[in-house]
Amino acid sequence: MTRSTTPETIAREQQFAARNYAPLPVVLERGHGEWLTDVDGKRYLDLMSAYSAVSHGHAHPRLVRALTEQAQRVAVTSRAYHTAALGPFLEKLTRLTGLERALPANGGAESVETAIKAARRWGYQVKKIPQDRAEIVVARGNFHGRSTTIVSFSTEDSYRDGFGPFTPGFRHFDFGDLASLEAAITPNTAAVLIEPIQGEAGIVVPPDGFLRGVRALCDKHRVLMILDEIQSGLGRTGRWFAFQHEGIKPDGLILGKALGGGLLPVSCFVATAEVMDVFEPGSHGSTFGGNPLAAAVGLEALEVMEDEGLVARSAALGSHLLSRLRQIDSRIIRAVRGRGLWVGVDLDPALAPARAVVERLAAKGVLSKDTHETVIRFAPPLTISRAALDWGIDVFIETLEEFEPAPAHKADVNQADVTALPATPRRKAAMKSQRDTQRPTARPATRAHLMMSAPDHFEVSYKINPWMDPEHWAVSAERLASDAKRGWQALKLTYERLGARVEVQPPVRGLPDMVFTANAGLVLDRKVTLARFLCRERQGEQPHNRAFFEALRARGVVDEVIDTPAGLYFEGAGDAIWDRQRSVLWTGYGQRSSREMQFVLAETYGVPTVALELVDPRFYHLDTCFCVLGRGDVLYYRPAFSERALGLIEDLVGRDRLIEASDEDACHLAVNSVALGDDAVFCHATETLRGQLAERGYRTHVVPLDSFNRSGGAAYCLTLRLDLSTPVGAAKQPIFVEDDAVELRAAA
Ligand code: ARG
């Protein structure tokens, strides 16, 4: 074995490089996905991803290809000319952000500068602030970059010391405090510039409703709301942009880091036309900004993010990361904060200085980064596998245990806290089993609001899925129809007994499958996306569904009724299952609904979507083979899915939360069930399934629905939930918060 070259390499860099960083003693040479390798061949798990710049993982093959292909064509032309690459990149970015124009630059700070210039000009030209008096309100603890103007409004001495004189025109308020913000606004305020979550300050998550409050204050005082989402944007927090957590839109948005796909510095200021149009030719620019190489990589970075469902990965794996970290039983930990795959663990510096922990982690092959002496930040690539993430968390737990003081040194030993014990194999086992058994508990369900369609004309008169057999139905049509009515009534009664309110849609003669209300549309956050059926036999239902939803809108039950875009098919909640546990919308395609609906729904609702390919014609809607139970467990039938879909399910849900349906249950359409908190309504359940459900704390209710089974439908198909909503606000990050208000019992 050859001697390590690490010490020489480090010494050389230290001699010739400016001393403005204090890197960990690791010399990295190669990177692939979430793994880095040093010059000695040692592997490291990257839980930092260059402060979110490497959200796509290292050397993503599609991004490397986009980079090399464009480099061979043309890389840099300057904006003195047009190029073919820029338009598509900026078009995509404006579509994703919901804003109108984009101004590209390189490092993030350049786009912060762009935003400041835009805000000031807007202040003078549009708001008519007196010349040179425009002010921008910023938060204490902010971090927006390192230029002289940007450090002028930093509140961190180490960023400012010796760099004056400073740029005037900035006022401070306390992050998260709306009263303090309003007090800082004057008639000369042009903009509020903030990070939705303060990264460098230690992953500081503001209280629920803060961004909404900022939006309201900005509107009230005619001030621009500008968000620096250089780190929080592009999926990092489990939404495309952090502002989507609160259903608001900024006037200007600063993006960077992951926009370059981990290969190049690419940043952008994106804004409304009113803001951006203050720039005329000559007023601002950048030689490298928007160069073809950057544009090609930037566009591919956005497309990879869409195609690989990275936002949903961040939401689901982020929930998992946060909940595992919150369950660590250690007195070293003072707080765990974060959203999505972005978490800060605040440590007690007297017990474990963050830098020392980070060094120990690196020695064990896990890369993270300390900030402000006490916080360890985790921001892994969004592509990280669940197994790698779990390994990284295990190593972190083990490392913390090594820092745990012996009980004798504890001030309050007499509390006999488990955490006071030194690390032993037994204690490790105890912690692990605690983690494994710690499960969410349910509060009584809030009153669910459901829609059903009356079964008066239900029959099987045509065949659009393998379950349907009109000839067989004809033999005993009358009995089957009356059975159906009885089953439907029993189902409705069961819901009502469980506290639900049920709206009944009138039946229509000649449209038997209208009884399968789940296919009428998707209702989320009071917004209806109307179904468009693939099968002509069901298309006649569309106008009736529209009329019913319009009536619900008139009554104030829903706010908006939207069409599925022309050319696409969508069979409603049957192929779009909201998972509040993970804050993702699972969509099904391959049988009925179009694959592209994942993007349409992501845009309409501002939520991450996961697209699962269905490969078995018997399981033609996602709801026939996939069910999210009240506590976040997922019941599913493996043969219905493609390999890729199975991989996604395993990674995003986790094996401990998956229940595999047997052939027998699946072929009785048992998976097509309705979860109301800890209650679950099935049309069938084998003893095995009942046992699995009981073990996990569910009460199983079985309502036989044989007649509907003959059409390939069961409980879920017959029901549409009208009151599904995405959580609003930061603190309500749905770690273990279910739609019926299920939450994790406070850890120990
Ligand atoms: N016969 C109907 C069809 O094939 C059954 C619909 C069942 N609905 C459901 N959401 N799985 O369209």
Count of distinct strands: 32
N-to-C CA distance: 48 Å
The second-level CATH architecture of the largest domain is: 5-stranded Propeller
What is the overall pLDDT average? Answer: 92
Q: What percent of the residues sit in helical stretches (DSSP H or I)?
A: 25-40%
Q: What is the CATH topology classification name of the largest domain?
A: L-arginine/glycine Amidinotransferase, Chain A
- Indicate the structural class: alpha/beta
Integer-rounded radius of gyration: 28 Å
Helix segment count?
24
Strand order of the largest sheet: 4-10-9-8-7-5-6
| CATH homologous superfamily placement of the largest domain | L-arginine/glycine Amidinotransferase, Chain A
Largest sheet: 7 strands, mixed
Low-confidence stretches: 409-438, 730-748
- CATH C-level class of the largest domain is Alpha Beta
Q: Beta fraction of the residues?
A: 15-25%
Given the C-alpha coordinates, what overall shape results? globular
How many structural domains are formed by the residues? 3
Which compounds are bound in this model?
arginine
Question: What does this entry look like structurally?
Answer:
- This protein has 748 residues and is of the alpha/beta class.
- The protein has three domains: 24-53 and 311-438, Aspartate Aminotransferase, domain 1 (Alpha-Beta Complex); 61-307, Type I PLP-dependent aspartate aminotransferase-like (Major domain) (Aspartate Aminotransferase, domain 2); 449-747, 5-stranded Propeller (L-arginine/glycine Amidinotransferase, Chain A), CATH 3.75.10.10.
- The chain is 33% helix and 17% strand.
- The chain contains 24 helices and 32 strands.
- The strands form nine sheets. A seven-stranded mixed beta sheet has the order 4-10-9-8-7-5-6, sandwiched between helices. A four-stranded mixed beta sheet has the order 1-2-3-13.
- A hairpin with a 3-residue loop joins strand 14 (369-371) and strand 15.
- Helix 12 (310-326) packs parallel to helix 14.
- The two termini are 48 Å apart.
- The relative contact order is 0.10.
- Bound molecules: arginine.
- The site of arginine has 16 residues, from loops.
